[in-house]
UniProtKB/TrEMBL annotation:
Localization, UniProt: Membrane
InterPro entries in alphabetical order: AA/rel_permease1, CAT_C
Domain of life per record: Bacteria
Annotated membrane topology: Multi-pass membrane protein
Organism of this sequence: Olivibacter oleidegradans
Entry keywords, A to Z: Membrane, Transmembrane, Transmembrane helix, Transport
Protein name: Amino acid permease
PANTHER family in UniProt: CATIONIC AMINO ACID TRANSPORTER 4, INNER MEMBRANE TRANSPORTER YGJI-RELATED
TM stretches of this protein: 35-57, 63-82, 190-210, 222-242, 254-272, 292-317, 337-360, 390-408, 414-433, 453-470, 490-506, 511-527, 533-553
All copies of domain Cationic amino acid transporter C-terminal, residue ranges: 514-556
Length: 569
């Protein structure tokens, strides 16, 4: 059984399966400019228009350094994605790459994790879009009922907190949520509260993705031009209102304050990997995908660092814990016109991020279905629109329902867990490709820097630095009992053990330094996420494994081909 769980597909086998689909292929219409546009559309979305405020509130102006650090982690990963994309130029992203490198069980796990990443990301984006949309309508004097623009989860919790602790214990946003609960029509004891705009925009984008990649590409390109224009507008216009005094103290809450924004900052970068799901719709995926990933990541990093410095320079970082920070800073400086322009533009711009993730999700399902791991209906291609029609509709339903009823903060950290997991496997997969010699057929390769001594030397320097400058951290560890270490520091322990193992393997096999760095940086960022998110993520994986063993393990086409080969022998 163990042998069957780790059965792998060759690059040739994947390409053969892709180009011999009875339902017809996808339309090849995307060039490098389109891919860069899709990448920017995915990256510059709710992260910069919403969660960047929370990160700045926790870390102060120094959060700009966290953007640089996170970007470096993403560059290591993007290079690994680029190599895989040039080696296996088909839809499926990290799922397909894991099938080649690690085998079927890992492919299923990563595919299942990507379902969570893409779906949850879109829930956050849809909810963020709704907040900007409601704010925009208020600017025109239109006010939607509170019970149609509030999550039922948030309204329920705020109302019960009001009953137990009184209005003094509620924040301003909780008071609004409690009012929504009170004003809503009731069906028995159930308040009919939902975030209607979030649901409607998801349905609209799903329809656009359903009718074709050309239409999606055109819409994305237009929205990206607008989006980047707004960001440049904020940077250039806001620079005249920066007060250097707001940058002091630069890191008011220290390293812990900066790192507490890891989930929010990393969420702002999620998206560059999503363009790998469109490989089958690229004119020249082996050349264009690697270029597009690097280009869009570099562009977005520069924009993020500049806009963070401008935001924290215009107002004190303590004021940035809001859902619409870009519009807020201009309102705070009396520039209501600019704030209005940003609100209107943001509504359109955030839609492009929703579009790209909604584009990627069904293509992963389609690829898993082709391999027999999901119901074959997910692999069906619409005869007219040349899109995975059924998978697109289901993806729309999966995102729409939670976006209607849940709060945004519940989803942000959860998105990052699944993404880090996928990134680590992709970086590890490149090491496998190099070790097996498969990389020789890659048209793009991660620049090779021999890690034989570098990985171990970096470990030694880090440990010495910790003993010299991290005495408080060491004391914290010493004061913990064995049970507390396991409960609170288990992920950090795994990080250090992984580094030691990679040091040994790098010395033995001459591993490339950059993929190893990608593994370590992503693993470290994972340790900064809350334990509750890990519990939910592990529960999600358990559900996925149950489905795999009930359906995918038996229905796998690779399993069927192996059985047929065994019968012949």
């Amino acid at each position: 059984m163990a042998h069957k769980l780790f059965r792998k597909k060759t690059v040739e086998q994947i390409q053969k399966d892709t180009y011999h689909q009875g339902s017809g292929g996808l339309a090849k219409v995307l060039g490098v400019k389109d891919l860069v546009s899709l990448g920017i559309a995915a990256i510059v979305g709710a992260g910069i228009f919403s969660t960047i405020g929370l990160a700045s509130y926790n870390g102060g102006p120094a959060v700009s350094l966290l953007f640089v650090f996170t970007a470096i982690a993403c560059v290591f990963t993007a290079l690994s994605y680029a190599q895989f994309a040039s080696t296996v130029p088909v839809s499926g992203s990290a799922y397909t790459y894991a099938y080649v490198a690690f085998g079927e069980i890992f492919a299923w796990i990563i595919g299942w994790a990507l379902i969570l990443e893409y779906a949850v990301s879109n829930m956050v984006v849809a909810i963020s879009w709704s907040e900007y949309f409601v704010s925009m309508l208020k600017g025109f004097g239109i006010r939607l009922p509170l019970w149609l623009t509030t999550s039922s989860e948030g309204a329920y919790e705020a109302f019960h907190k009001l009953q137990q602790a009184g209005s003094e214990a509620l924040s301003s946003s909780e008071k609004i949520a409690a009012a929504a609960y009170e004003q809503a029509p009731h069906l028995g004891n159930i308040a009919l509260v939902c975030n209607l705009p979030a649901g409607l925009i998801t349905i609209l984008v799903t329809w656009l993705v359903y009718i074709g990649i050309k239409e999606s590409r055109t819409a994305s390109n237009i929205m990206v031009i607008l989006k980047v224009s707004v960001v440049l507008f904020v940077i250039i216009g806001g620079a005249f209102y920066v007060k250097p005094a707001n940058w002091s103290p630069f890191a008011p809450n220290g390293i812990q304050g900066i790192l507490s924004g890891v989930a929010a900052v990393f969420f702002a970068f999620i998206g560059f990997d999503s363009i790998s799901t469109t490989a089958e719709e690229c004119k020249n995926p082996q050349r264009d995908l690697p270029r597009a990933m690097i280009y869009c990541l570099l562009i977005c990093t520069v924009l993020y660092v500049l806009i963070t410095l401008v935001l924290t320079g215009m107002v004190n970082y303590k004021e940035l814990n809001v859902n619409d920070p870009l519009a807020f800073v201009f309102q705070s400086t009396g520039l209501d016109f600019m704030a209005g322009v940003i609100s209107i533009s943001s509504v359109i711009a955030i839609t492009s991020a929703l579009l790209v993730f909604q584009l990627g999700q069904p293509r992963i399902w389609m690829t898993m279905s082709r391999d027999g791991l999901l119901w074959k209906k997910f692999a069906s291609i619409h005869p007219k629109y040349k899109t995975p029609g059924f998978a697109t509709i289901i993806a729309g339903i999966v995102v729409t329902i939670p976006a209607l009823f849940f709060r945004m903060d519940f989803f942000v950290d959860l998105t990052s867990v699944g993404t880090f997991f996928a990134f680590i496997l992709v970086c590890g997969g490149v090491l496998y490709l190099d070790h097996q010699g498969i990389s020789k057929q890659s048209k793009f390769r991660v620049p090779y820097v021999n890690g034989k001594y570098i990985v171990g030397l970096a470990l030694l320097i880090t440990v010495l630095g910790l003993f010299i400058y991290g005495k408080a951290t060491i004391k914290e560890w010493v004061d913990l009992s064995a049970v507390e270490l396991i409960e609170h520091k288990s992920l950090t322990i795994i990080f250090w053990l992984t580094w030691v193992i990679l040091t040994v393997l790098s010395y033995k096999y001459n591993f490339s330094t950059l993929p190893v760095a990608g593994i370590l940086v992503n693993l470290y960022l994972m340790t900064e996420l809350g334990a509750s998110n890990w519990i939910i993520f592990i529960g999600w994986l358990v559900i996925g494994l149950i489905i795999y063993f009930i359906y995918g393990y038996r229905k796998s086409k690779l399993n069927a081909s192996h059985r047929a080969l065994g019968d012949k022998l």
